[in-house]
Fold this sequence. Notes:
With 85 residues, this protein is mostly helical. It has one domain. It has helices at residues 8-20, 38-59, 61-70, 73-83. Helix 1 packs across helix 2.
Amino acid sequence: MLPGSVNLWDLVEMLFYLDRMDWHGWLAYDVSTRNGDPVEMMSATIAIVESACALLDKLGRNQLQAFIDEGLAPRAYEYLVRSLL
């Protein structure tokens, strides 16, 4: 399965915490396809992760941390959904 295909927010959250930990190591995905081109699948995987990183930039790491510190999920989730527009 492609990264984020079941839960986009889990992917963004993982990238957020890797960034907070100052992670500079490898990030790897084990993806395969029964039907289709494996190169296209891997290219899509890379593009999705890059897009999720761009979404994290758009959301703002400091803003996300403020929501975490505040602990009010409805306000945070509304912000996340509105940011997709």
